[in-house]
Amino acid sequence: MNIPFFNYPALFAAHEAEYTETIIDVLKRGAFIMQAELHEFEEQLAAYLGVKHAIGVADGTMALIMSLKAAGIEPGNEVLVPSHTFIASAAAVHHAGGKPVLVECGRDHLIDPSRIAEAITPQTRAIMPVQLNGRVADMDAVQAISDAHGLLIIEDSCQALGAKFKGRFAGTFGSAGTFSFFPAKTLGCFGDGGAVTTNDDVIAERVRLLRDHGRAVSGQVEIWGFNSRLDNVQAAVLLLKLKRYDEDISRRREIAAIYQDKLHDIPELLLPPAPDADTNHFDVFQNYEIEADNREGLRAFLDEKGIGTILQWGGQTIHQFDALDVNHDLEVTEEMTQKFMLLPLHVNLSDEEVNYISNCVREFYSRVNS
Do 209 and 354 fall into the same domain? Predict the structure, then answer.
């Protein structure tokens, strides 16, 4: 079989007629910037998550930057961020004027709450839990630390739309939550896109100003802002996709269950928690990130079998980028980066393909151990 890690053309081909009709309708009306589709998508996203405000923005990175600025992050403020995340998480803190301070991850590859307190200083202003791979961190523990030290919580939930912790959605725990609609995300458009969610009216108003050059509805410029609006064409596509989003999540969880069933007994692998392993968590499996002994050998073998895999972040976490001059002493994360990799997981995979991938993984370790 030939199974690329992600099948971008299939995103459009799966519902080509619907997408074509939707896009042409927007184009014919000339409804390009902040039109009805954007407003409706914002309303539907807010309703889905059960929040007061959802604000469409240009991308997930700008969602983070504007959330931090709207929440009051200022020069000299430190924000605690796990090292195992895309560079945008820490870069957003930098560009908002703050200083990112990196924290260890746990065995689930999310921020380790037991390591947060040791990173707090008098300059710490906020915690940014990253809801990575479609799983929500232990937000009870994060919230307890936040309350004890008077810290803001700004969620990077860009990989976790629809994921829950104790029945509560990612992106609804802190002062603000952020989402990315990059094409490969669980809810992806055909370009860049993002959103900020919040129940705070003041933060919502500031984000709306920030995304549109600081302009209020009156046309008056009230603050220095950005050009960071979610394009209306992309909003129309997202609005269409949101209607069947629960079906997509169900399919992702089915694929994860197949991997779990086929691979759980291989001692050389550490798998993500199974879909129903913990009643506190509802995972949406943005990615299927494993830890594998002899990782490079496994990847080479799978490549020979026509199976694409990748190393998230190019195989490096933020503390390993020496040029950024951030704290480096993160032994658990360092160890994890020697083994982590992603197996294919997206809604266009068939059961046959998932079984083929699993059988090839089993074959590799059977050969290694024979």
Answer: no
108, 134 contact by CB (below 8 A)? no
Count of domains forming the chain: 2
In degrees and rounded to multiples of 5, residue 130 shows phi and psi of -105, 115
Based on the fold, state whether residues 223 and 253 are members of the same structural domain.
Answer: no
| Residue 304 to residue 308: CA distance in whole angstroms | 9
- Residue bearing tokens 């990575």: 132
Q: Is residue 3 part of a domain?
A: no
Convert the pLDDT of each residue in 315-370 to its tens digit: 999 999 999 989 878 999 999 999 999 999 999 999 999 999 999 999 999 998 88
DSSP labels for 236-259? HHHHHHHTTHHHHHHHHHHHHHHH
Q: Domain span at residue 19?
A: 8-242
Burial of 103 (0-12, 13-18, 19+ CB in 10 A): buried
pTM greater than the 0.85 cutoff: yes
CB atoms within 10 A of CB 304: 10
Chain mean position to CA 75: 26
Q: Which of 68, 355, 55, 365 is nearest to 198 (CA)?
A: 55
Residues 192 and 262 in one domain: no
- Decide if 158 contacts 194 (C-beta within 8 A): yes
